[in-house]
Amino acid sequence: MKKIKSIFFLLSCFIFLSACSSLPGLPSNKDDHVISISGGITTETQILAGLVDGMIEHYTDYETSVINNLGTAQIDQQALNNGDVDISAGRYTGTDITTILKMDAIKDPKKAFDVSKEELKSRYNQVRFPSYGFDNTFAFMVREDTAEKYDLEKVSDLEEISDQLTVGTDRPWLTRVGDGYQGFIQEYGFDFATMLPMQIGLVYDAVASGSVDLVLGYSTDGRVASNNLVMLEDDHQFFPPYDATMIVRQELLDQYPECKEILDKLVDTIDTKTMQELNYQADNDLVEPSIVARQFLQENNYFEDN
Question: Which UniProt keywords apply (predicted)?
């Protein structure tokens, strides 16, 4: 079986790309006999691209091309719109609602999925598949000993000790409109004693080492489990849902109708803990995302019973 693996690095800004009929670095009027799958710049989306690629390879004789490092959801969407990409393997409902569809954030997960699905179909003739089974959202996290000491289970439990806490978070969250720090204060009714901005990748080690008491991180990051961190329930549903799904051009499903049944096998197969473990294999053990994906499919017999 022939296999085409391509990695494209795109450095153009979205405004420029919007005016282009085809994205720089991607073939214009690509071979209709090659199914093109986009990953992203994160470990997680590249693993998801590997899963989609592996499933199509296992069940068909079609050629595929995996395109990683599409830097933003906007660039990824433009590639779908242009037909340079057939399947976007890792897209998140919350991001699509606000960034792609330019709508106000929707806090209810089912509504966010339904609205984004309907809008993507009506605007772009693209199909949002049901979730892989996990939601990669923001989550406040503490060490196990901190959770036990203060009996912490949900975010609202932090109110009584908020004036004692040093919090690590990525800098953009402090000023982001909507689901940023000011929005959090308004929703939960309290703030924290000290805020320490840092790169998002550093927050997990910072809380594990005791440099800070509490951090805001990503729920599916592999370092959550490896550092035995406790994620606190967002009991006010402040953060929008970010259910992970694939988006597929309707033209592909019309041309290769069997792809729908194949891709449906991936629905509800990965929970948050499993995604954490897969991310950890790539980020900590330095296993290539495509290999992590292939091993996961082999371990699960390519979900042949789904």
Answer: Signal
